[in-house]
Amino acid sequence: MIVDDSPVARAVLARMLAPHGDMEVVAIAGNAPEALDALAGTRVDIVLLDIEMPGTSGLEALPEILRRGQGARVLVVSSACDEGAAAVVKALSLGAADTLPKPGIGRFAGRFSDELVDRLRRIGPAARHGQSAPIDALRLRPPSEHRLGCLALGASTGGLHAITGILKALPAMIGAPILVTQHLPPAFMPFFARQIEGACGRATRLAEPGLVLQPEEVVLAPGDAHLALDQHGSRVLVRLDTTPVASGCLPSVDVMLGATAEIYGRSAVGVVLSGIGRDGLEGARRIVERAGTIFVQDRASSAVWGMPRAVAEAGLASAILPPADLGRRIAARTEAKPWR
Question: Name one GO biological process term (predicted).
């Protein structure tokens, strides 16, 4: 479905998709109310959504579009995404799978068309009820029974919404620091930090060398370095690392999970959330080797079930659930027996 108040934009987007046999435009809407009405009778995999529209904006309508879409993903295509990180982070936090800035007037062709098609194929078809592999078909590991010592969340495409979903489901006091690695450009990270703090009410800081981890505080990997850790006595300090890793990601979920495993062992809980690729697989393996616990997001709630799938299919996960349910499962660990 294409949702844009500009007839020209709607026509051009539809024309770009027409040559691709694996894609079909099944509905077109000129505003948010039209889109919501259309979703009542049309099954959609992906909604191309403009932000700046008269009346109800795309951002205002986004949560309801996701609810009525019954598994449909949203790719925000808007010039607002080219004007600053705030609009992008807001859209992703509300549940958009990805964002793509519109090209300038007269530049609708060329690379933009290729990028649009690539994004759509990466997002892929919606996960409908009954289409996901049953959880019992994947081997689940028994979780550690020790009290939570550190929570590490890793995500890429579609991850912002999942991260806030987990954090909102946690009790105010969990007695442990929270680490987050989300694939985002450096300029976006301050907006992401404020978004988490506002949505979840937790003190949130960007990682910097020597920062001491504190219970209840969220520490975000910067967009241009891995979040690593060092221990000095009873204190655990942040160390930033830019060493290239196998996944090619910077920051890398693997590095964060590996560091968490080394220091916290069986009290470590790592969560791999929505994202393209396999970043997090090797870090999850390290946590399991150190007797810690790994959870992953389920397919139906993921914008892209790539990173979680790799971990689940490797037999490393102890639960495969939507973010809010993962948050409740983690909350139960805050009252488990001590880890030392």
Answer: chemotaxis
